[in-house]
Write a structure and sequence with these properties.
This protein has one domain: ABC transporter involved in vitamin B12 uptake, BtuC (Orthogonal Bundle). The protein is globular. Helix 3 crosses helix 8. It has 11 helices and 2 strands. It has about 290 residues and is an all-alpha fold. A two-stranded antiparallel sheet has the order 1-2. GO terms for molecular function: L-isoleucine transmembrane transporter activity; L-leucine transmembrane transporter activity; L-phenylalanine transmembrane transporter activity; L-valine transmembrane transporter activity. This is ABC transporter permease. Belongs to the binding-protein-dependent transport system permease family. LivHM subfamily.
Length: about 290
C-alpha cells in the first residue's frame, strides 16, 4: 500500500472525525449533565443540513448564512423538545428518556421526509471544489473550511465549558445536582443552555457533513451508532475524550477503506473500538468504575 494513499486516507479521517466531534460533543454534554444518551442527535444533524439547503435555495446562497441558520434552527428545535419531552421526563429512568429520544428522532425524520421527500440535495460550494495537490497528497479547500469551522466551534465550546460561569455551573450540575441546587445554581436554566448548545453543535455538524455528502433524510441517523461508539471510546461524559474518540474512529474508518473497501470500513472501525476497550474498558479518558 502506497504511503501517499495512507496519508490521504488519514487526512480524510481527520476531516471526518473533526466534523463529527461536534455532534459527539453534544452527546457527551447531554449525557454528562442529563444522564442519558440522546438518540435524536443524528436527526438534529439532518435537520441542520436541510435547513442549510433551504437557506441557500430560498434566502441566500451564502454558506455562512446557511451555517448560522442551521445552528439557530436546530438549537430552537432542541430546546422545544427539551421543554416538551425531556424536562417532563427528568425524574424518569435513563432508559425511558433514551426511548423518548428515539421517538423525537422519528418525529424529526418523518417531518423532514414529509416536507422534503426522499430527494437528495447538495449544498452549493462553487468556490471550494478545486483540490490542491502536493506530490500526490490531495487537500480539498472545502476540507480546510470544514476543519477551520469545526476547530473554531470546538474552541468556543471548550472556552464555554472551562472558562465561563455557565461552564462552571454546568460542571457543578453534572458532578452533583443536589449540591449545585443547594449552592443556588438554577438547574433548569443550566439545562436550557445545555440544549441550546447541543442543538447548535448538532446543526453545525450537519451542515459540515452536508458539504461532503448528499443530504437525505437518513443522513445523520446512519451515523448515530458510530457517534455513540466514539463517545464510549473516548470515555463517556468526557468532552476531550469525545473529540479524541471521534478522531480515532474517523481515521480508522478511512484507513480501513484502503484494505477492505468502503462497504466494510465501519466494521474495521468498530474492531479498533473493541480492541482499545479491551485495554481501557472505561474509555481512553474515562474514569475507572469500581465494582459493587
Amino acid at each position: 500500500m502506497e504511503l501517499i494513499a495512507i496519508i490521504n486516507a488519514v487526512i480524510n479521517g481527520i476531516v471526518l472525525g473533526t466534523l463529527l466531534s461536534l455532534p459527539i460533543l453534544a452527546i457527551t454534554m447531554v449525557f454528562g449533565i442529563s444522564r442519558f444518551p440522546n438518540a435524536a442527535t443524528g436527526d438534529y444533524m439532518t435537520l441542520g443540513a436541510y435547513t442549510a439547503v433551504a437557506t441557500q435555495t430560498w434566502i441566500s446562497g451564502s454558506l455562512v448564512l446557511a451555517v448560522l441558520s442551521a445552528g439557530l434552527v436546530t438549537a430552537l428545535v432542541s430546546v422545544f423538545f427539551y421543554l416538551w419531552v425531556f424536562r417532563a421526563l427528568a425524574q424518569r429512568s435513563n432508559v425511558a428518556r433514551l426511548i423518548a429520544s428515539l421517538g423525537v428522532a422519528f418525529v424529526v425524520r418523518t417531518t423532514i421526509t414529509f416536507f422534503a421527500g426522499q430527494d437528495q440535495y447538495n449544498l452549493e460550494m462553487p468556490r471550494l471544489m478545486r483540490a490542491w495537490n502536493f506530490h500526490g497528497i490531495r487537500i480539498l479547500p472545502m476540507d480546510v473550511y470544514i476543519l477551520l469551522t469545526a476547530i473554531g466551534a470546538l474552541a468556543i465550546a471548550f472556552v464555554i465549558l472551562h472558562a465561563t460561569p455557565l461552564g462552571r455551573r454546568m460542571r457543578a450540575v453534572a458532578d452533583n445536582p443536589d449540591l449545585a441546587a443547594a449552592s443556588g445554581i438554577r438547574a433548569r436554566r443550566v439545562m436550557l443552555y445545555l440544549w441550546v448548545l447541543s442543538g447548535f453543535f448538532c446543526g453545525l455538524g450537519g451542515v459540515l457533513l452536508a458539504i461532503k455528502a448528499v443530504v437525505m433524510p437518513e443522513l445523520g441517523f446512519e451515523l448515530l451508532m458510530p457517534m455513540f461508539a466514539a463517545v464510549v471510546l473516548g470515555g463517556v461524559g468526557n468532552p476531550i475524550g469525545a473529540v479524541v474518540g471521534s478522531l480515532i474512529f474517523g481515521i480508522s474508518q478511512e484507513v480501513a477503506t484502503l484494505y477492505v473497501g468502503p462497504s466494510y470500513k465501519i466494521v474495521m472501525a468498530f474492531l479498533v473500538l473493541l480492541v482499545l476497550l479491551l485495554f481501557r474498558p472505561q474509555g481512553l479518558f474515562g474514569r475507572p468504575m469500581l465494582a459493587r
